[in-house]
Amino acid sequence: MEEVGADALAESFAALGMFGLTAQDWEQMLGAAERGEAPPVDWGLLQQADVLGRVQRAGHEDLLRAREVLLGLQGFYAMYVWHALWMRDTPGLAALRTVIDERGMFPVLDHMVGLFPSSTQFAEALAACLEPYLDELYRALMEQLAANPAIFHLPGDDTGAAGFMDTWLRTLREQTGKDTGQGSP
Known about the structure:
This protein is mostly helical. The radius of gyration is 20 Å and the shape is globular. It has helices at residues 6-16, 23-35, 43-48, 51-57, 60-82, 91-102, 106-112, 119-128, 132-147, 160-176.
């Protein structure tokens, strides 16, 4: 909000269709949060958005798609955050991060996608994946992956994903001073 302002953020959330709220609804909630007013969010507006009702009204195929999107986004999220754990960069991984970064979606994924969510977190994230903006993100990531499927290929190394993982594990051992138990690469 500090980078673009509450008005622009509210318009973006409304344009994405988040919870079915209008830009004015988002402006009200974000403005209160920015001023530090209690409560920082008008939860009544979120309840009016009827998130649970949307899940209850969703068809079988919609819920299956939401699950596919959620599980797929978990994998892309993992690849994104592993980059910060001394994972070597490749053109394919950089391209996937770019898809997420250009949409400003890492904070959203970081908030909603847990690698090992509780059943409540999974249900909430599944409901969020009924939103079209997350389906669009997943589609864009899958298109990028299809365009460059060798995401774990290090330039100049013809060992492929196995060589990539060996390099990463070796780097982890060097950085942490611990043996990962995987043997010597």
